[in-house]
Amino acid sequence: MMSVLATCLGYPRIGFERELKKALESFWSKKTSAADLQQCAAGLRRRHWSLMKQAGIDHIPVGDFSLYDQVLDTAVMVGAIPARYRAIKDPLVRYFAMARGLQESGEGMDVPALEMTKWFDTNYHYIVPELASKQTFALNASKLLGEIDEAETTGGGLRPVLLGPVTFLLLSKMEQGKTKGLTPLAFLDQLIPMYEQLLALLAEKGIQWVQIDEPCLTLELDDQAKAAYRTALTRLAACPGRPRLLLASYFGALEDNLPLAAGSGFDALHVDLVRAPDQLDAVLGALPATMHVSLGLVDGRNIWRTDLDAAHATIRKAVEMIGPDRVMVAPSCSLLHVPVDLAGEQKLGSTMKSWLAFAAQKLNEVRVLADAAGSLTPSGQPFLDSRAARANRLASPMVRNSHVGERMRGITEALFRRTSPFPARAERQRARFRLPLFPTTTIGSFPQTGAVRSARATWRAGTLPVPDYDKFLKEETRACIAKQEAIGLDVLVHGEFERNDMVEYFGEQLDGFAFTENGWVQSYGSRCVKPPVIFGDVSRPCAMTVEWSTYAQTLTKRPVKGMLTGPVTILQWSFVRDDQPRQDTCLQIALALREEVVDLEQAGIKMIQVDEPAIREGLPLRRREWKDYLRWAVDAFKLATSGVRDDTQVHTHMCYSEFGDILEAIAEMDADVISIETSRSRMELLGDFVRYQYPNEIGPGVYDIHSPRVPTKEEMADLLISAGKVLPATRLWVNPDCGLKTRGWPEVQAALRNMVEAARVARRQFGEERVG
Ligand SMILES: CN1c2c(nc(N)[nH]c2=O)NC[C@@H]1CNc1ccc(C(=O)N[C@@H](CCC(=O)N[C@@H](CCC(=O)N[C@@H](CCC(=O)O)C(=O)O)C(=O)O)C(=O)O)cc1
Ligand SMILES: N[C@@H](CCS)C(=O)O
Ligand SMILES: [Zn+2]
């Protein structure tokens, strides 16, 4: 008898104990071999397949595992390897060179990494494939086929996951120069045969179902992209003898792309019903009689326990309309974006735990929902538990704080404005700080060395007494200030040694947040974050950063920037409550940060940086929703930062994204200075700031901090000089792309010395005076 299938689109690969992270970093630092790394990776894959099998998942993903990133894996699989990496013969070394750059002094090897940017509106970063004007492709499916062989022992139900050809091309970029007028989509005809060959190989292996991820189907597509979809989907559907194909859309609604998807000739369509529940009727109405639907009902982007009754009602609707044989239940997207297992949490408290589901629990929810599809009124224990948890959360006194409600009602227009407009503020700030032309600074964090991390780990474990930890951090901060002075930086930072993570640190100090011990989620490569959980109204019980900033300022005469994470970024990088609009939660965070900003000023801090790297990532995927989001996101930043005097300089910082299309909003944020990542894209972004005539001061990043490579004085000076030609030199700052926490001290010191030298070169070119 056929029944509703339980399926999964992808599983976190980092490992319950972040085994992959550790194996990667150990391999990169040459402590272990490639074989050790591959062994760890194979062990993780085996574990994940086996636990999906145990959870009763009928379609188990294979090929979603990656040593670094699934988009990079796809580029390698189709042979899209830019020329500069082809001299590297060892495939693994070449793979990591594309991901992280490679600088080997002995062998004269010095190649920067490919660009990295955010995966849709998530905090995961992918490597941007780069195509040449005469791009050709060649299939190398060894990774995927090898993993399928490994997974055979799992016992059937394997569903290979491929990033689809159109999304692959839409996420790619053309290499710089010589490609005028060409866009990656021009290569679709050459790329499709790689997928055709691959489908034939998968059919030979006896694979029954293949999942083709096309998340770009949830975006607004122009005619060229729609035509590309028509071509690609029709051709793949027409492959002779192919396995059955599931087209996976996620992160939003298909809307006007639904006819493309439903008419694709594929055998199943996955839809995200967490982000876009309202699309169900249209989807069911559009499905041809041969097509299955995969209902994405368990949230792959958040950690709240599923409302099983609501999900069950949706499944019933689908079953009644098209019959159980054509229905699959699934998470809304890959589970890559949620932590591995709630079982890793000992300190959360049973009430909070009962509200949550991580990846392992979500698999169980999918199974339970599939099993209950035949029942009209499910009453098994999982449903009873889900109802009880929901009722408990809705009624919990932990969630509401009447003081926060009062403060929210007391917000007035005046709280969103600095006293004077930027030109008047800039004049006062120039008089106050007397900085040289091209002032040099950094973004905030300095290396989080093994010593810093392990001191924190022992302090957390209770084996390092608080005063000793405090003394250790003060010593790190003191040494950091001394190093910055020796390097010759103009505006200093305290180094953020006390912070585990720029969001988690604040989450731990604010009321309304819970934090996990082991809730790691991959951010890029081996780097993970532990997003805090916002479960209730947010408020600040006491000052959070004032002590560290004021301590650092006592150590130097140069200005030390106060360092805060902005409201939108705290929101975006947390798991957010789903019982009130995100904007209300964001304004609550902004109110708490406003108190901190004012306290910093009162404590004598003259420059305050409020980082908003996630503001672009928070942008809704559909343009019509942008205006509303940008209104409240900008308001939240202004609410947080407008409580200070004109001569207090507000900085902000952004990284990882294309900011071209939100420049107006960035300007409205009205920060006195913005530092922004530009170096990986070789300052392409700066063109947007020029075109928009960005009015305030700006520090275009001149040094890619994601790579251990030390940039030369000359290359950074070139970047500055090109920036100085298009923007007034009087408004330019000099800084790396982002914080330096992931780097080691020797390379940081060498790079910053070169950066300070580069600023001197630029000053010689443009004059020493900072007037204007
Ligand atoms: C700027 N970025 C950030 C994003 N999101 C955030 N939430 N935070 C960010 O900073 N998104 C965009 C980018 C992504 N970039 C990065 C960059 C770097 C990291 C990173 O370094 N992550 C660390 C983990 C950071 C952390 O929280 N560390 C904790 C725990 C450390 C730990 O693992 N301790 C060990 C013991 C260590 C020892 O004994 O030596 C343990 O407990 O077992 C801390 O410092 O206390 C990473 O290592 O992945 C992330 C995103
Ligand atoms: N102040 C932070 C910003 C990162 S986006 C840092 O320097 O790490
Ligand atoms: Zn940054």
TrEMBL record:
Residues 7-319 form the Cobalamin-independent methionine synthase MetE N-terminal domain. One of its GO terms (molecular function) is zinc ion binding. Residues 438-760 form the Cobalamin-independent methionine synthase MetE C-terminal/archaeal domain. L-methionine binds at I443, G444, S445, E496, D611. It catalyses: 5-methyltetrahydropteroyltri-L-glutamate + L-homocysteine = tetrahydropteroyltri-L-glutamate + L-methionine. Coiled coil: none annotated. 5-methyltetrahydropteroyltri-L-glutamate binds at R18, E19, L20, K21, K118, N123, R527, C528, W573, E617. Transmembrane segments: none annotated. Zn(2+) binds at H653, C655, E677, C738. Pathway: Amino-acid biosynthesis; L-methionine biosynthesis via de novo pathway; L-methionine from L-homocysteine (MetE route): step 1/1. Zn(2+) 1 binds at H653, C655, E677, C738. Pfam families: Meth_synt_1, Meth_synt_2. Binds 1 zinc ion per subunit. Binds 2 Zn(2+) ions per subunit. Catalyzes the transfer of a methyl group from 5-methyltetrahydrofolate to homocysteine resulting in methionine formation. HAMAP family: Meth_synth. This is 5-methyltetrahydropteroyltriglutamate--homocysteine methyltransferase.
